[in-house]
Design a protein that fits this description.
Length: 339
């Protein structure tokens, strides 16, 4: 299956491409979005951009060592792709932004740029013949374990804050008598003599300029990416949910993304508190606690005691103040007995 766009801007998402002759995707103008596809190809190029401004991201591109993974003559943004097994991973003729790609095990270049205004940053390039060749602004990349780290950079480039180490040659200048500046890079060591031995420049051929690498970083730049060991090549799935479905305009539903549950918004209302009812009638005595029953008994006993005291006091008062009781006491008073 292959797709050719003509001045349109489709979304080409979640597809599996496998071709042996034509390019799986050819862009002729427009602003297409090409993302989350698996692209296997044998000849031509994986994604071929004649002109236009596509966004190419999150694809896995695997070639048979004969052509370019992405060939761009437009103004593309190429980011977060895994590219392996091609002749060259990316060939940028037009101005390009090439960032956060993992490019390894390609026959020739990881990235080949013919435009000095291209931005090449935060890529990991390993196990290619050449990490990056040509022109561009080269920042915060990790370029390691290639035969050549940088090939034929020129004096107009900005080459800084990269990790360039463990290549057979870290930099190889070609027929260019101008000096090239490559300041503030990490070269795998702080030994200036050892660094210089990994650079092919005027000291090796008098028709070349000199690569100026001092000052350099004294440790790895942590903002450059780590090099991966292997790129996994997806295979089509025989199930109904396979990403191999050749549908052009698939957009993920909101459920396919994780969304965090927002914190509850505070309100001015008083929160409702649920608690056990109080003052339960006697018909539901079983719901009283022991402490509530004890308190009730104390109250009953206190009331009974108070009533008893009042009754005793009243009786005493009546006996003391009743006139009949006094006369009775006088009438029965015994006479004095004289001796």
């Amino acid at each position: 299956m292959s797709i050719v766009t003509e001045g349109s801007s489709p979304k080409i998402i979640n597809n599996y491409f496998s071709t042996t002759s034509n390019s799986p995707i050819t862009i002729n103008g427009g602003f297409p979005i090409i993302t989350k596809n698996a692209i296997n190809f044998v000849s031509s190029n994986g994604i071929h951009i004649n002109y236009g401004s596509p966004e190419i991201s999150l694809n896995v591109i695997n070639g048979a060592g004969q052509s370019y993974g992405i060939y761009n003559e437009g103004t593309a943004i190429i980011s977060d792709n895994n590219i392996t097994g091609c002749y060259s991973g990316i060939c940028a003729i037009g101005q390009s932004t090439i960032q956060k790609n993992n490019i390894m095990n390609n026959v020739n270049d990881g990235i080949r740029s013919n435009n000095s205004n291209s931005l090449i940053q935060n890529n990991a390039l390993s196990k290619n013949l050449v990490g990056i060749s040509g022109n561009g602004v080269i920042l915060n990349n990790t370029i390691a374990n290639n035969n050549y780290g940088l090939w034929a950079p020129n004096s107009s480039e900005s080459i800084s804050y990269n990790n360039i180490f463990d290549n057979a040659q870290n930099v190889h200048l070609t027929e260019n008598a101008s000096n090239v500046n490559a300041f503030y890079n990490w070269w795998g060591t702080t030994d200036a003599f050892a660094i210089n031995q990994t650079i092919w420049d005027f000291k090796n051929a008098t028709n070349l300029g000199t690569l100026n690498f001092i000052p350099f970083l004294n440790q790895t730049n942590p903002f450059a990416p780590l090099v991966q060991i292997l790129i996994a090549i997806p295979q089509p799935s025989p199930t109904a949910t396979s990403v191999a479905s050749p549908t052009l305009y698939i957009t993920p539903t909101p459920n396919s993304y994780f969304t965090a549950t927002p914190e509850p918004t505070p309100t001015s209302s008083t929160p409702q508190i649920t608690q056990e009812p109080q003052g339960t009638p006697f018909s539901t005595m079983g719901q009283f606690s022991i402490m509530e029953i004890a308190n009730l008994l104390v109250i009953v006993l206190a009331v009974a005691l108070a009533v008893t005291i009042i009754v005793v006091i009243n009786i005493k008062y009546i006996k003391t103040d009743n006139p009949r009781s006094k006369s009775r006491r006088r009438r029965h008073k015994p006479k004095n007995i004289r001796s």
